Each structure stands twice: as structure tokens, then as C-alpha cells.
Amino acid sequence: MSRLLIDNVRPFDSRRGVLGPVSRIVIEDGRIAEVTAEPRSVDAAQRIDGGGRVALPGLIDAHVHVVASSHDLVGLASQAPSLLVAESSRILREMLLRGFTTVRDAAGADFGLQEAVARGLFEGPRLFIAGFPVSQTGGHADMRPKGVRAREMFCSCAGLGLIGAIADGVGEVRRAVREQVRNGANQIKIMAGGGISSPTDPLEGTQFSLDELKAACEEAEAANLYAMAHAYSPRAVTRAVRAGVRSIEHGNLIDEATARVMKTEGAYLVPTLSTYAALADEGERLGWSRAMLDKLDVVGRRGIEAVRIAQAEGVPIVFGTDLLGHMHARQNGEFDLRLQAQSPVQALQGATVTAARLMGQEGRIGELTAGAWGDVLVVDGDPTRELSMLTRPDAGIRLLVQAGRLVKSSLPGRDR
User: Hey, is 37 helix, strand or coil?
Assistant: First the structure.
């Protein structure tokens, strides 16, 4: 049995949003055995003194694309799969070093990449995959240029599915979802409305019929999974959650009435504010069209307000980023953006216990509690008051442990 003892830390209770007394965290065979303030002897192969600092659960980013090594998604779809995977290994490692011990991939990663992380072949966050996003013809994930009729031209990249599985009609939607289930999806991604990076579909439009949306959700539920839906407008969001979608990705244009429907239906909101900030800075340089930039301006101006509305209506809000290419480096900047609409505790819960609940992983991740994975960050400062230690993780995260394995430390006497 391997045992790691992290002593002299104040654990963050992510459910209650408070710091506990100075305690010790005992991790056995990768999982937390106990968190206790009782002063008693514990034998351990490795002991770490936290110096009275705060201990947090490992962070969760619930909207990433770990194979998106470039903003050019169409170009990536034609790239050699071996190169794409090699680039993904770097993205995964950098996410882990920023404090994210678990991520939910919102389309692109496949079961092979997930297995590589699980076996330790790649160093990175625990990976929950969606496989291919399911899109109607002309939907947000149908990236075919005008005039191209072949439906499968972008869907043969060794199962790495940044571009959509195109499905029209209830039967095709059911088959597309079942195919993702067959290939090991942990959640199903569907495109329920227009988007920014797809230049021909209106941002405020809806996608898929109600019967198609319900079919996707039924198939996900039949496999003990759930559906996450890309949607911006009130109409698209309302249709999706009433059809059974569990989480709305983005949701920048929601209003109070929509948020109330989300609350009633038990849906979660996963805003991705950092991607709009990044693209506002770089979209023109990256060659985005005027139409795409105009849509970006609309959603960028409404993102913070959507978080405020959801927070006021009691909709659970989860941390997500949706960054691409070199913009992944902005991942922790999402915390700064959230603080315009949330308290530090609310933002931190969105990246820990609330994300775990969304993913059906409560008690396994996002908490410092017996039985959970031994994912621990020891940080400077008080994250219940401010989050600078997370927005500058190189300096602020002093210890990073994933499943009981020491990833990095800058604590006195533990430098590596």
C-alpha cells in the first residue's frame, strides 16, 4: 500500500465553501483515506508539510478541446492523427500543471487518448470524453465548405472528432449517439443552436427538431450518460433543456425567463468566457471573417451578464474555457472573468464540486473527502477571498498531487 501524508494544511470544504481547521490529508493507493484535524500518528512513506497553507481539491475544467492544437479546426481534421495526438500530449500536460486534475472534453478526444492518460503514457488531467459532436446538416459542427456534398469528408481522422457527426432525422440522431456510446463516450455533445466559428448558421437560430433533441437525450440516458448542448439564444437553450439536456455550453444570450426554465429542469450552465476574450484579441489576426467577428462581439458583450442572470436564478454554474491552440495558456484567466459576476467561493465551487455533480462524479472528484481521488493543490493565500493564486498558477500553486502522485512542488525542502 502506498501512503502519502499532507500535513499542516487548511482544507477547503467545497460543498460548504469554507476553510476547515489545520488538518492532515492521508492518501492511500491514490484515494483520500481521511482528512482529520486530530493530532495522531500516521505512518506514511512520504510526508509533506503544507506550512499552514490552504489545500484545495484538484480543479475541473468542464469544457475543453484537448486535441485542438490550432484554431483552424478544418485544418486539424486533415492533419496526421499521430501528430495530432503528439500535440495533444503537450496540451494535457500543461493543463495538469495549471492545476486541472480532471477535464471534460467537449468533442475531439477519443478513447485511445483517454486510455493513454489513464495508463500514465501521457501526463495530464483525468479525461472525460464526448467523441464526435452530433450536428444536423448545416449545423454548428458541419464545417464543410459550400458546394461540398460528401457527408463524411471530415469524419475519418482516426476517431478524433472535432468536426461533427452529421445526422438528420430521429433515426440518424439515435444512430450517431449510439456510435459515440459504442466508442466510449462519457457524455454526448449535441449542437442545439448556431455558433461563432461556423460562418453560415445564425447565432440566434435553433438546430435539430424537438423530436431529434429528445431522441439524443433518450439515447444518452439509456446508456446512463447525459447530453451537453452547444446553445446561445433563449429559444435554443429552452428547447434543449426541455428535451432533457443536462448542461448548456456557453449560453451567453440567456435571459431571466430562460434561466428559470433551466433551474426548473435541473440544467447546468457552463459559460466559457475566456475563449471570447482570447478571440476578441486575436480573431482578426487569425483570419476570422467579418461575419464571425460580428457574432463574437454579440456573445462577448453578453457573457458576464448571462453568468449574473444564472447566478441570481439559482442555476448551477460550472467552470469551462473552450480554448483553442496557443490560447489554451489563458485557461486560468477564466477565474478573473468569473469574478465580475461571482464571488471567489462561487467561482471555485464551479471548478470543483459543482462540476463534479454535473459530471455524475460527486464524491470522486472536486472534494477533499474520504473515498475521493487524491487530487490536492496546496496554495498560497486565501482562495475564499481572492483567486490570484489560481490565475497565476506557476507561483500560486505550491504543491500539486494527482491521485496520490506528486506532480510538482515548490514547498520548502520539496523543490523539484
Answer: coil
Q: What is the mean pLDDT of each run of 10 residues along the chain (416 residues)?
A: 92 98 96 92 84 98 93 74 91 98 95 95 97 89 66 48 84 97 97 80 88 98 98 97 98 97 98 92 78 81 95 98 94 97 98 98 98 98 98 97 97 60
- Enclosing H/E stretch for 93: helix 81-97
Residue 184 Cα to chain centre, angstroms: 18
Distance of CA 83 to the CA centre of its chain: 23
- Distance, in Å, from the CA atom of 335 to the CA atom of 69, rounded to the nearest integer, reads 22
**CA–CA separation, 249 vs 198, rounded Å?**
16
- CATH superfamily of the 3-58+363-409 domain: Urease, subunit C, domain 1 (2.30.40.10)
Q: Map residue 282 onto helix, strand or coil.
A: helix
**Non-local CB neighbours of 25 within 8 Å, separated by 6+ positions:** 5, 6, 9, 11, 32, 34, 35, 55, 368, 374, 376
Question: Phi and psi at residue 74, in whole multiples of 5°?
Answer: -65, -40
- pLDDT for 415 equals 38
CA gap 180, 132 in Å, rounded? 7
Q: How many CB atoms lie within 10 A of CB 205?
A: 17
pLDDT at residue number 200: 66
C-alpha cell at 341: 459576476
Rounded to 5°, angle at Cα 138 from 136 and 142? 80
The identity of residue 81, as a single letter, is: P
Which helix (H) or strand (E) element contains residue 376?
strand 376-379
* Domain parsing of the chain, residue ranges: 3-58+363-409, 59-331
